[in-house]
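Exercise 3.2. Students should predict the tertiary structure of the chain below and write it as structure tokens, then compare their answer with the key that follows.

Predict this chain's 3D structure.
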Amino acid sequence: MDLGGNGGGLPVNNKQRAMTPNKSRGEFPRNSRKDSDGLSESPDLEFEYSDTDKWASELSELYSYTEGPEFALNRKCFEEEFSTHVSDKKWTELDAAQHRAHAMRLLDSLEVIVREKRLKVARAILYMTQGTFAECSSEVEVQYWMRYNIFLLLDVGTFSALVELLNMEMDNSAACSSAVRKPAISLADSTELRVLLNIMYLMVETIQQDDPADKPEWKTMRETFRAELGSPLFNNEPISVTLFGMVTKFCSGHAPHFPMKKVLLLLWKSILFTLGGFEQLQSLKVRKRQELGLPPLPEDSIRVVRSMRAASPPASASDLIEQQQKRARREHKALIKQDNLDAFNEKDPYKADDARDDEDDNDDNDNSLETETFPMERDEVMPPPIPHPPSERVSFPKGLPWAPKVREKDIESFLESSRSKFIGYTLGSDTDTVVGLPRPIHESIKTLKQHKYVSIAEIQMAKEEEYQKTPLSGGDEEVEMSATELLYQGILPSLPQYMIALLKILLAAAPTSKAKTDSINILADVLPEEMPTTVLQSMKLGVDVNRHKEIIVKAISAILLLLLKHFKLNHIYQFEYMAQHLVFANCIPLILKFFNQNIMSYITAKNSISVLDFPHCVVHELPELTAESLEAGDNNQFCWRNLFSCINLLRILNKLTKWKHSRTMMLVVFKSAPILKRALKVKQAMMQLYVLKLLKVQTKYLGRQWRKSNMKTMSAIYQKVRHRLNDDWAYGNDMAEPLVPVSVNVLTCRICSQLLRNPATIPCGHNFCLQCIEYFWEQGASCSCPECGQTFPSKPRLTRNSTLAEVLRGTEDRQSRKRRSSASPRVQKMLRGEEPSEDSLCLLHNGSLDVFCYTDEQILCSLCAIAEHAGHKLGWVKEERKRKQEELMTLQKNLQQILQDGEKKKQKMCRMFDQIKDEAAQTEEYSEGAMVRVIDGFQTRYLSLRETIAAQAETAASRVHSCLQTLEVEMDAVRRRRAELDRLAQSGSDRVFMQKWASVQRLSRTERLTCEEDAENPLVSFEAMRRAVQQTVKKIQEFSDREFASIFSEGTSLGKG
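Answer key:
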């Protein structure tokens, strides 16, 4: 990312911070400095700017403290599902095959129709992505199992199923209409959405963490997932576009129950994962410059910014008085000699200021910087430098940190002005010819060319201009379908609405003391069903709400900055289109409104309860919360996310205003200088750098008195911000310029093409004659600017611009005096009205042209009429003008009538559009209800059919069971007879054998099984039922195909008609 002009953000080893417990990075390891009075200053904020915070912090910010009880609910749902399949082991004791099998079972269970069952399964999957924390003993172990389980779920295809469920919940009209009707929305209204978004966020956030210890297959899965996430595989569009749609639907009021914090966090991490962070941006920029044959970047901006030190903030008036009193009591010390200027270039320009903050100081004067002098200006010895702990710093030559840059157009402008001054002619864009110019100009051009910088945007614009010159012969433009290009094409149709929606949410989340009556409700996913009843609960909810807003600001600022940076690198026109719509949506005043607060209090806010953060809250025993512990907060000296948000917003403001004069003037008009100066009190080098950049671009418009009163701010700009060698930022408006009259073209009405009469300024800033613009709006269908085309919702109230009228009067007087002084005596008489003007005199006879020849349709003088037009029908010009004027009025009336008829037809067609939309919506709603009723009917009949089949199966089984019991009894009797026969056969007595033989023979002949197999097969009824169902389904399909074909043909014929 572009830090100070070029590069990327600060690199962070995510692996080193991925497995660390959730501790904020708001710490102060640097030694504090002392000012020249011996007063201890506050140390620099040890803030490490990167794509995201620590992994544990990013995970904890997903959940609000109100969602705490749901952790146990997720665990319960998982254990109920898990125990039905595995009863003797824990999840962490299973092998990989068993893990995969259970994950597949959960994925299959997501496809059930019953919402309650589906929600339980989704909670079980959420518990897996949360690391199955009940079986873990430490936060590191939870994070390990989170990573393992998430890659397992990704491998079995869980993310695609989640996207489908998310689309179903988005289109759930019943939930949307119910939420719209509710007077107050709480967590309960978005349970299904929150569970799905939690799983998706945890998967994206975890997979994007690149760990060198990952398995090779995990690395392959990560790259595949990155490509799928940025391609239109989900619902024929990238997942980011779907999330943008949720944002606009929420802001339109049609879905107020959407959990917007989770949506924005998932949107941010999806864009970050698919497009790449600040380091990837820097690498892409270097690669693109190589491909275009451009020279390498002049320096590594990441290292430059890392090497910078923060400046001391401007002191308040009370601090200055106290310092002056102490200085007066001090004895004077000897003045040392300054060896070179570089010794003071390395010094902090704010070092002599007191570090105490006074956020209520809205004075535009930087008295602290004016009255506090450098050590070389006092009678004292320069204090020795204070040693600092070693850190990674850049070895620069003594002097300025940035290499200067010069654009090609700046060199052309310098040459043109030099040629006009010394030679009197110009050569256009020729930057090589220096003939006739003084030797110093030659040296200046040589120096400027040494530091010439050609940006990728300039090459892109040059290619576009060349393509526009020959659009037919140039062929089709080849566009690389990168992830950035796919995202831009996806959001392009609705990009203005997306930008407006994001800024609406940013406005609602901005910390301000004034209530926003018309803002949207962004607290739907943080407010509980039952409001707190005790003071402690109210305090906890207050912390949760403030934390919720801070996270939303963090996500939106990161989204906007990432999009601007990636679009600018992909193509400058994409960046300009997005930036223009941000400006149209009042992004600049919104960011200034955000900074017009106690910014130091915002950055040091302690809206967090560390013991309730995930995963700490699910691993450790929760201590009892008290009002004192909530008020004290944590021990961090600053809030990482708030400082991150402030820097992002400043970078966005820099992107929007860079090289844009009109937007820079917006900063001046909105009086941003005192607002930005208060932000300098935050002692963080990167934040101060972007504040100084914004102050630099408007310095020359703030006046000499402001610059005189803020000399130390000017010095800081000189020391920390990149220089343009021909930059006039410090003195531009103070240069002695010749008094050149205002160009008449600037003061010309674009409607009548004449000098403005009674000038009026419309809201877009353009000027027109008061009568012209009113007539233009009366004739048109809408109130729009004839010059830029901007449309106004209602007719603006117009008043005469008296200041511009005075300028016009002076311009007219100067032009009139100039014409009269240079005209001949006869022309001067005509200008005074003493003689007719040249265009009213005949060139042959020098007579008045007041005769009109109807035959030849010519204007003549009386002598021409007598000499050359004898016998022709003649008349007076004035009378003919009156007649023609009446005809003209008739034509105007006819045209006006045609326009009115056309306007009526247009309004009728517009109403027809609305009616078409209403009818389509009603038809769709009716069709949906009818289909739901049909499906419900089929569901009911299906349940009845299941009951019939079950009853039939029970009857048949009972009959078979009864027969089986009878058969068992008879077979037992037969076994006894056989045993008797066996004993008889083994008898040794012939007499006994013969005595028993007759009875045994008689019984054996009558022995048989009475339980015969049923003549009717019980399976036949099932076959008959299957055939009946098959025939019924076939008839229903044929009927539906026939009837729906009729419906479709009816709709097609109506559409053609």
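Discussion points: Residues 55-274 form one domain. The chain is about 60% helix and 0% strand.
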